[in-house]
Amino acid sequence: xxxxxxxxxxxxxxxxxxxxxxxxxxxxxxxxxxxxxxxxxxxxxxxxxxxxxxxxxxxxxxxxxxxxxxxxxxxxxxxxxxxxxxxxxxxxxxxxxxxxxxxxxxxxxxxxxxxxxxxxxxxxxxxxxxxxxxxxxxxxxxxxxxxxxxxxxxxxxxxxxxxxxxxxxxxxxxxxxxxxxxxxxxxxxxxxxxxxxxxxxxxxxxxxxxxxxxxxxxxxxxxxxxxxxxxxxxxxxxxxxxxxxxxxxxxxxxxxxxxxxxxxxxxxxxxxxxxxxxxxxxxxxxxxxxxxxxxxxxxxxxxxxxxxxxxxxxxxxxxxxxxxxxxxxx
Length: 330
Hints:
Blueprint: E1 2-7, E2 15-20, E3 29-38, H1 40-47, H2 56-60, E4 71-78, E5 90-93, E6 100-101, E7 109-110, H3 117-120, H4 123-136, E8 143-147, H5 151-162, E9 167-172, H6 175-183, E10 188-191, H7 198-204, E11 212-215, H8 223-228, E12 235-238, H9 253-256, E13 260-263, H10 275-287, E14 297-302, H11 306-316, E15 322-326
Helix pairs in contact: 4-5, 4-10
């Protein structure tokens, strides 16, 4: 069987390639893709090779590169010895953008039947941002400012809302993204970049700064401005990964105002909450309407039109939030 795949054969180039599907051996399952979600930050840092030598990016990115880690599909066949899944299950798994997959049976996680595939595709970003929310410790009544209302920022502010934050402020220069943030529960929206948000932020919060700030942008030059937006003895969540971490410089705010800087990553793990439990929490919050997904997918492309999708994101990323590939029928 043939499989269509998104490929970066070299930096700044996207192709759709066809390859033979892996054999369905013992302990594996055949999955037909429905949709997959582009991680617009990570995938375009890789596509454009926007990372420094010696970083973790340089260690794992090798061209040709097959991007993606947020796939949803239907189990079509079971390999010998598979008992934890059944044909017809809708599953999510952290594999690249492609039309068919043959993962090991331990990788896919079953999606409840009432969760739409378009919402389920956010599972990987839900895990990353859950880890951010967990690490920074959003509190009941908290005041939170989220810098950047792209995919990661949208998910972070929704976790803050679900955690009971009283004030959740979205900061972004793109009106479309701020409107989507409001749909997700943001109590205030500031149309500005981080370096111009200080006074509007104080105004929205009664003259004080937020106790918790999240920098979700992935841009190194935002970091010092994010520190200035954080209240004395407050906390800054650094969750937007940058390809140039050496360019992120601490300011005197960290020491003189006693700030805490907390990082978060997809691979963070917890003794009291497994990865399947994180996804169960996400499914439940989406289902009961507390984690609002309305408007999160701004663009859908057929999988075969992936080069056009990456062109859009690279030329006009601000017009996008969720960019998905639809593999059905391919």
